[in-house]
Each structure stands twice: as structure tokens, then as C-alpha cells.
Amino acid sequence: MKELELPDVKDVLVEYRQMQLLYRSALKEIGTKLEILNDEFKFVHKYNPIEHIESRLKSEESIMRKLLRKGVDVTVENIQKYIDDIAGVRVICSFTPDIYRIVDMISSQDDIEVLKAKDYMINPKPNGYRSYHLIVKVPIFLSDKVIPTKVEIQIRTVAMDFWASLEHKIYYKYEGNAPEYIRTELKECADMIAFLDSKMLAINEEVRSIRQEDSR
Ligand code: GTP
Ligand code: MG
After folding, report:
1. Where is the signal peptide (predicted)?
2. Which of 26, 167, 181, 187 fits a 20 to 30 Å CA distance from 7?
3. Which pLDDT does position 4 carry in this prediction?
4. What's the maximum distance between 2 C-alpha atoms anywhere in the chain?
């Protein structure tokens, strides 16, 4: 039985590598869309809503692990059906209203289909995690067909990103079972970051309104 499973997974990996071309293209499409929006916004409003953009393809190992966790067979169909974040883009903004600007601008594009939206800004996770997640489909034009391809977009502030990377490291180190006091401290940090973000936003708006008055 075991001997049969291995060649199967190998076949799936060969097919998956062909699929990677599609997901890599989807990352480029979304990356370009975001850059265009940022450039236009900068031109009109004189500032960048986007601090920076990161993108990645999910590793084969994490794809396999996720399928096992979900208890489904390792097939190319299941990869496409059950894994929303093969192509992942992270958009880091300076201020929280920038997050909603990006969400609105991306969601309203004609060729983008929003499959899921999760607002962990309004509804933070119990551990304190705050971000906005979108799962979208973007059409990829190949030589003989068009394939709508899924991309996960995570949008958060610089400060929230700092928190999320530390939390992620700790989560892995303790395999999801970090000691209670560490979880409490992380939650405190998350709350401080939410406070910091709102305070920095207030300062920024104050300064912008003074500058606007000066230029009148
Ligand atoms: P998966 O967790 O990816 O299976 O999907 P889900 O249905 O739980 O989706 P969700 O939108 O909650 O999370 C998607 C991704 O967001 C994760 O894979 C992480 O990259 C990120 N994320 C979600 N929650 C947390 C969190 O508590 N801490 C950190 N650091 N990242 C998180
Ligand atoms: Mg999750």
C-alpha cells in the first residue's frame, strides 16, 4: 500500500509544477495592479498608501502538509480546490484607512472576482491578529485559454506586520502551544499596536490638515 502512494505524490508534484506557472503569473498580475494603484494614488494625493509589497508561492511541503491537515487526498484538483493561498501577496500600508482604500480599489476592478473577504481589523482574532484578507480570482491569459487563478491578499499596517511576524515565529517554535504568559504578552502587544496605529493616524491627519491650510 505504502509503495503505491509515493509515485502518486510524485505525479502530482510534476503536474503541480506546471500549475506553478499559472500562480506565478497571478502574483505578477496582482503585483502590477497594486503598483499601478499606488502610483496613481501618489500622483493624485501626493502620498503612497502602500509601504511595500511581498509575494510568495507556497512551498510544496506546506501544500502537502495543508492537504493532510484538511484530511483530503493529494491530488492537483484538491490543491486547487482546498488551498486558497498557493499564490500569496502581502501589502504593507502605513495607516489603517490605506488598508480599506486598497481593498476597495482592488475589489472594484472588473476582471477581479472576490471569493472571500475577512476583516480581522474590525474583528481581530482572539490572539490579537489584525489584518484584512482577500481571496480573489484574476484571469490569466495563456496562448489558447484564459484561466481564472486564485490569489490570497493580506493587507496590514507596518506595525501589525511586525507583530504578525513575531507571533508567527513563536507559533512555530511552540507548535501552536505557546505558554500562557507569552500569549498574554503577545495579546498586550497587539492591543498596544492597535493603539499606536490609531495615534499615528491621528497625528498624520493633524499634520496634513495644517499643511493644507498653509497651502491655501
Ligand atoms: P489557513 O490558516 O491558511 O488554513 O486559512 P484560514 O481559512 O484559517 O484563513 P485565514 O484568512 O484565517 O488565514 C490565512 C493566513 O493569514 C494564514 O495562512 C497566515 O498567513 C495569516 N494568519 C491568519 N491568522 C494569523 C495569526 O493569528 N497570526 C499570524 N501571524 N498570521 C495569521
Ligand atoms: Mg488560519
Report:
1. none
2. 26
3. 43
4. 78
Q: Per DSSP, what are the bridge partners of residue 149?
A: 138
Strand partners, 135: 116, 152
**Residue 37 amino acid letter:** L
pLDDT at 169 over 70: yes
Contact 93, 51 (CB under 8 A): yes
Neighbour count for residue 2 (Cβ, 10 Å)? 5
29-65 pLDDT per residue, tens: 999 999 999 999 999 988 899 999 999 999 989 999 9
Among the ranges 60-69, 152-161, 203-212, which has the highest mean pLDDT value? 152-161
Grid coordinates belonging to 181: 504568559
Among 126, 102, 97, 104, which Cα is nearest to 200's? 97
- What is the arithmetic mean of pLDDT over 125-135? 98
* Minimum CA distance residue for ligand 1 atom 4: 66
Q: Which residues line ligand 1 (CB under 6 A)?
A: 85, 118, 125, 127, 129, 133, 154, 164, 167-168
Question: pTM, whole model, 2 decimals?
Answer: 0.93
Q: Which ligand is nearest to the CA of 154?
A: 1
